[in-house]
Amino acid sequence: MTTTPDHAAAATPSATDLLRGRGLRVTAARTAALDALEANPHADTDTLVRVVRERLGTVSVQAVYDVLRVLTEHGLVHRIEPAGHPARYERRVGDNHHHVVCRGCGAVADVDCAVGHAPCLVPSATHGFRIETAEVTYWGLCPRCAG
Amino acid sequence: MTTTPDHAAAATPSATDLLRGRGLRVTAARTAALDALEANPHADTDTLVRVVRERLGTVSVQAVYDVLRVLTEHGLVHRIEPAGHPARYERRVGDNHHHVVCRGCGAVADVDCAVGHAPCLVPSATHGFRIETAEVTYWGLCPRCAG
DNA sequence: CACATGATCTGGAATGATTCCAGTGATGGA
DNA sequence: TCCATCACTGGAATCATTCCAGATCATGTG
Fold this sequence. Notes:
Chains A, B: Belongs to the Fur family. The structure is a homodimer. By secondary structure, the first copy, chain A, is of the alpha+beta class. Chain A folds into 2 domains: 7-89, Winged helix-like DNA-binding domain superfamily/Winged helix DNA-binding domain (Arc Repressor Mutant, subunit A); 95-147, Ferric-uptake regulator, C-terminal dimerisarion domain (Dna Ligase, domain 1, 2-Layer Sandwich). In chain A, 35% of the residues lie in helices and 21% in strands. Chain A has a 3-stranded antiparallel sheet with strand order 1-3-2. In chain A, α3 (28-39) crosses α4 and α4 (45-56) packs across α5 (61-73). The N and C termini of chain A lie far apart (55 Å). At the A-B interface, β4, β5 and β6 of A face β4, β5 and β6 of B. β6 of chain A pairs antiparallel with β6 (130-141) of chain B, so a sheet runs across the interface. Chain A binds a DNA duplex through α3 and α5.
């Protein structure tokens, strides 16, 4: 039987399918940004502009900002903003994972929650706040910066 | 016996004593900023400039930025930077506590680590990073914004 | 208590990330 | 295929923050 590659591999849907699945228009900038992010996890806007331009030739900075905003709003990418660093984006969404940021070079790596089912997400006193999410950022030194 | 108030109440040292204790020069801007922060926990720079000016009359914005940088570097205040908000400062330092930020109005409140001795600070895989600190930010709605 | 020294404050300009805006161009349903 | 709408372009503006050079002040010494 001749199943299309798209149907055969449902594990990693194409950028086009992801966009269609959310009812978003499929544009060159969007698919290129999603692919660039697949290849460069935790990339910042500047990096993504460069990578997208390598593929598409010419893309405005604002287009990339707009694409990332739309993708973030629709849950296709996740935005993190380490203190003192420009925003970074990743395609790993939906699961509760955290990040470690290098104080030296700003490198970011994923960190899964240590203990079973996210006990750190249950604070003691909430001061009447209705808590929705918890975000953990580890700070340290990456292997290279640690020497 | 005639002990001075300073010696009697070691619980909350004056701004002057805090500065002297770190070998820092005692200036009007610094004591005013420390006092302003005592009265306004989690205040941002803008707010602190206003409060300091109410007491001192005229202070440059840059002086406040400089004061806050020096105080932060010497561990007298703690700086937090919630994503999408300007930096905020607090005098509660040295203990491992976290923050909840309101998605509506940006209000910040302190949150003590829920479970015993900070298990959330022990990540599972560190990717070779040498982890120094962990920072937890809860996001939700404050009582007012939750309606 | 006056002085010298070096840190601190002032005012102004610059930076970097991000957003806003008006106009042109592309996408996808009719 | 045609059109309404949404997306992209280019330029300017915003916001928080930092940089710079010069004037001022805090502090240890004589």
